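Listing S7. Sequence submitted for prediction.
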Amino acid sequence: MKKTTILVLLSTSLFACRNGNINPDATGTFEAVETIISSEVAGTVKELSIEEGKTLKTGEIVGYIDSIQLVLKRKQIESQIIAVLSKTPDKKAQIAALEEQLKQAKHELARIEKLQAGGAATQKQLDDASSQVAIISNQLRATQSSLNITSTSIGEESIPLKMQIEQLNDQLSKCRLVNPVEGTVLSQYVRKNEMVTVGKPLYKIADLSKLILKVYITGDQLVLLKIGQNVKVLTDDGKGGYKSYPGTIDWISDRSEFTPKTIQTKDERANLVYAVKINVQNDGYLKIGMYGEVLFNESKLN
C-alpha cells in the first residue's frame, strides 16, 4: 500500500511538472551585459565588417575610419621638429677652435718657462703667457656652457611637438576599429561611408553564452538567499512543460524598491521587493527578454 501511494505521488508530481503546475519562487526576464562600442575619433567610416547576429572575438579588427588628415598633420609636425632641431649648434666644431688655441697657448707657456729658467725670457713674458692660457680656458668653459644651454633650450622646444606626434599616433591607432569584448552583435548603428564623431555609437555587443535572469523577491525570501547559492531556472519548452537550467545567484540588491508593474512575485501583496540577478549558462535557446522562473528550493522540481 505504501509503495502504491509513493508511485501515485511521483506520477502526480511529474504530471504537474509537465503541465506547468509549478509554483515558482520568483519570475523575471533574461538580460545580458551589453556593451556599446563608440568611435574614439571623428571621420568617415571606410570599412565596417559587422552585422547584427555576428559573433566577434576580442581584438578582432572590424573596420577603420579615414585617417588621412591625421597622417598629414603628423607629417607637418615632424617637419616642424626637424626645423627646430636644425638650430642645434655644432658644439664639437665650435669648441674645437678654442681647444686648439688653448693647446697652442699651453705650448707657448711651457716654452717661455724653459727660457725664463735659462734667463732668456723675462718675468713679464711668462706672466703674459700664463694669462693667455687662463683667458682661453675661461672662453672655452663659457662657450661650452652657452652651447649646452642653447642645445637644451632647443631640445625642450621640440618636446611639445613630440608629444603632439604621440597624440596623433594614439588617434591613428584608434582609427582602426578593434572589437574589445567577445560576443554577438545586437545592434548596428553605423554603416560604411557614414560620418562619425567622437563618442558616436557604432554597434552594441553582448556575450550571450551566459545570460542573467533578473527577478524580484520579497523581504521574507531575502533571508533565505545568499551570493553563490545554486538555484533552478525554468523556461517554457514550447510543449506545455518546462526546461530546466542550473543557475547561480550572482547579486542581491541591498535596497528595496517598489514592485515593478511587469513583475509578479510569490507574494503579490508585497509593496517592496529586492532585485536578484542569477547567472545562467545559455545553451542557445535562451534569449534576451525571455521570461524565466526560478525555484530557490530545487526539491520542488524533483
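Caption to Listing S7: primary sequence and predicted C-alpha cells for the chain studied. The longest helix spans residues 123-175. The CA atoms of residues 48 and 191 lie 7 Å apart.
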